[in-house]
Amino acid sequence: MKATDVIKRDHRAAEELFEKYKNVAHEDRAAMEEKIFQALDAHENMEDTYFYPELMAAAPDMEGLAELESEQGELEKEVEAVRAMEGDRDEAIMGMMDKVLTHAKKEEEEILAPAEEILGAHKLEELGAQMEPESAVAKDEG
Hints:
Order of helices and strands: HHHHH
Oligomer: single chain
Number of strands: 0
Number of domains: 1
Helix content: over 70%
Structural class: mainly alpha
């Protein structure tokens, strides 16, 4: 599976997880919150370890890459702040989820398509093989 497809699959899994969170009984949300944080951690680590270093090495001046990196850093801080909250963090989780999904959509539209051309099929398959076991989907199944 190509690296870009691994990322997109994680994004779809996050969307599903967020939908489940919205529909789960309030008293069962703590367990779902932990699953959300674990999925976000796995996805972030996978991208930061494999995908973005390769893309930045191949195209350091790629349009939108620096902005997305900055946005991702801010999002990571927000995730950690929400994770550290005590008590009912439902509203904070919902706001965080909206930002995560907006970020994922932007990443897919502005970064992944050009990355396919920049990195090429062989490199994307190679990266995908490395990323697959580290993806949020694989971590959830494991």
